[in-house]
Amino acid sequence: MTNPFDTPDTAYRVLVNEQQQHSLWPRDLPAPGGWSPVFGPDTRDACVAYVDSNWGDMRPASIRTAG
Predict the structure, then answer these.
(1) Neighbour count for residue 13 (Cβ, 10 Å)
(2) Which run of H or of E encompasses 61?
(3) Which of 43, 47, 53, 63 has its Cβ near the most Cβ atoms within 10 Å?
(4) What does the pLDDT look like over 8-22, one tens digit per residue?
(5) Quick one: which of 15, 17, 5, 16 has its CA closest to 44?
(6) Are 17 and 34 in contact (CB under 8 A)?
(7) Nearest 5°: phi and psi at 11?
(8) What is the CA 63 to chain-centroid distance, rounded?
(9) How much is the pLDDT for 39?
(10) Could you tell me the pLDDT band of residue 64, with boundaries at 50, 70 and 90?
């Protein structure tokens, strides 16, 4: 069985949670609770490029804003 997260020919979406963390997610799988689509469906490369352009600080939002 092929892992759907590692298939380059699969269409993906980018999901974001309330902490503004991003996740690459196969289009055909339902988004888990607490995650919302913000980009796609598109190619894996396009989704990775979106994440690279929009998620510069990998710390959760609650940590970035504390202090």
Answers:
(1) 22
(2) helix 61-65
(3) 47
(4) 789 999 999 999 999
(5) 5
(6) yes
(7) -80, 140
(8) 19
(9) 98
(10) confident
